[in-house]
Structure formats: C-alpha cells, structure tokens
Design goal:
The chain has nine helices and eight strands. It is an alpha+beta fold. The protein folds into two domains: about 160 residues, Orthogonal Bundle (YacF-like); about 70 residues, YacF-like domains (YacF-like). The strands form two sheets. A four-stranded antiparallel β-sheet has the order 1-4-8-2. Strands 3, 5, 6 and 7 form a four-stranded antiparallel β-sheet that branches.
C-alpha cells in the first residue's frame, strides 16, 4: 500500500514540501559519498528557498499557539489522559520557544555564509560546480566523510527549530483524522464535505499498482484512480477500487 497526501490550502502545501526536503536531507547527509553530500547541499538550498517566504515563521508560530490553546480547553474533561495531554502541550511549547528564538527568517544564518552562497549561486547551473569553477568546494568534497557529515550537521542544525515545528504540527494534523475503508465505483470517487468544518489534508492509501489523481477544495473532493501502462502513461482504471480515505482537520 502507498499513502498519498493532498493539501487543501497553500500553507499545508508549503509544510509538506519542507517535510519532504528535510527527509531527503537526512537521508543524503547520513551517507558517505561526496556526490550524496553534494545533493544534500542542494536540498539544503531548496529548504532555504521554500522557507524564505516572509510569513512562514509567523504562520507556524500562530499555528503552534492555536493548537496549544485548543488543547488546554480539554483539561478537566472526564476520561481525559492528562499525562498524554501534558506531553503534547509540552512538545508544542518547546517547538514554539525554539522557533521563536530563531533569528530572522529560517535559513538567515546560512545566507550569511559567503562560501555556501558561492555554491548556491552555481549549483543550479548544469556542471556549474566543477573543480575549475569552485576549487574550494571541490577540496571540501575530498575531505573524509566524517568531516563532511559534521559540516552538514552544523548547517542543518540552524534549521532544526523549523524542522521540529513542522513535525509537531503535521503530526497533530494527521492524528486528527480517522481512516475509512472506501470503494470507488469504476475507479472514480467524489464526496461533498460537511459544511461548518474546515479540512486541511486528505490522505489516500491504495495498492501499489494504482495511482490516485486527487482534486479538492473546502466543499468537495474527487479522486480518480489510474494505472500506468507499459510506457508509464496513466490510464483510467475503469474498475472498482478499494482504498483508505482520511480527512484531517
């Protein structure tokens, strides 16, 4: 089974993109080869590009505060696990404090590193980081893997508050939904969303040989199930498809 996620608004779209990039960065940075660390740096620069949105940090801080305030209203309810609630609110407090202490925009510290910025300015140019263009970068790539990993860890640490805030918020969002087993007749499924409730994320889990094409807004969602042909082009499934649907608010 493969899980697909579809965001209903731009804020969640940005958060999912950043989560994807942080996951890739962690995977590449843990390896030994210089080429992996080259693409780890490229991913670091992608994170900086996405995180450069002026209101991203303030939006995340507001979301952390909103979730914390909402959870506090549950205190004293019969049957509530106060210990579990304390754990969640503590993680929200920590994420808020760390992100709030981050100077300026996420990635601002790295933007002040002239050596990194010299690489950033050429890494999108085909072959632009050859040894004759950036000899100091080529020399860095010849260092022992442990040294390169230490450097990457240091640069990544400046973005850790952002990464942790995303993990907390997306974790709470995903936990807010309950999966339901559904069937799409003829490979197509549509559902009207209940008024008065705002959903932020749709999750679809399907068999590996089926690809969902998802569209939606605050009133309605639609999923069309496809199957790749021998050339990789997607064709309508044309038969009933069982899948798991989760709406998260």
């Amino acid at each position: 089974m493969i899980l697909y996620e579809y965001p209903f608004h731009e804020g969640i779209r940005t958060m999912l993109r950043l989560e994807h990039l942080f996951s890739r960065l962690a995977l590449l940075a843990a390896r030994d080869d210089a080429v992996d660390h080259h693409f780890a740096l490229a991913t670091l620069f992608e994170i900086m590009d996405v995180a450069a949105r002026a209101d991203l940090k303030s939006d995340l801080l507001k979301e952390l505060e909103r979730h914390n305030a909402q959870l506090q209203t549950y205190r004293g309810h019969p049957g509530l696990d106060e210990g579990a609630l304390d754990a969640v609110t503590s993680s929200l407090d920590r994420a808020f404090d760390e992100l709030n202490r981050l100077p300026g925009k996420a990635g601002q510290t790295l933007a002040g590193n002239d050596w990194l910025m010299s690489i950033r300015s050429r890494i999108s140019i085909p072959g632009g980081t050859c040894e004759f263009d950036l000899p100091s970068y080529y020399a860095w790539q010849q260092h022992a893997p442990e040294r390169r990993r230490a450097d990457l860890a240091g640069w990544r640490s400046t973005l850790t508050p952002l990464e942790q805030a995303l993990a907390v918020l997306l974790g709470l969002l995903r936990d807010s939904g309950r999966p339901r087993r559904m069937v799409a007749p003829g490979g197509q499924y549509e559902q009207s969303l209940p008024p008065g409730r705002t959903y932020q994320l749709l999750r679809v889990r399907v068999d590996e040989d089926v690809v969902p094409e998802i569209s939606g807004h605050r009133l309605r969602v639609s999923v069309r199930f496809m199957r790749p042909d021998a050339d990789g082009r997607l064709r309508p499934l044309g038969q009933d498809a069982a899948f798991e649907l989760t709406l998260c608010s």
